[in-house]
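Suppose you are handed a protein chain with no further information: no name, no annotation, nothing but its sequence. What can you learn? This example shows the usual starting point.
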Amino acid sequence: MTNGRVNRLWQNLYSHTRDPQIIKRFKQNFIELNPADADRIGVEAGDLVEIRNDDVYNMYGENTEGSFTAIAYVTEDPPQGQIVPEGTAFTYWLYPGQVANDIAPAYLDPANPNPSYKLAAGEVVRLGESELKEEMSFQARNIAPE
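A reasonable first move is to predict its three-dimensional structure. Written in structure tokens, the prediction is:
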């Protein structure tokens, strides 16, 4: 799983949590999945999933486990036409209460002893259909909601 910023969620949602258009579009964190991966694990757009990693490096230097939840986006028509590669997923990194860094790996780079916050291994587990499935848009992120 990779994670990063999303232009529509400007300034890490600092002020966007009060913008009704943004919250209507992104009521919960999302994870973009390749259609082949989504099919393999039985996930469709709008499902609630948990992303788990049992090898997380915590702030005390201990190995532990971590997870976060997100709404599945199956990227058949993604921004700029770039489908998330098979075997990879993308999520927003800092959604309140659903932080992707919760599954940062227990690896420290020897040259720069920091965890790899933009890259992690994790298992995507379907929790069920999200109650937001009928409320959120699952169009490509570069299309404005109706």
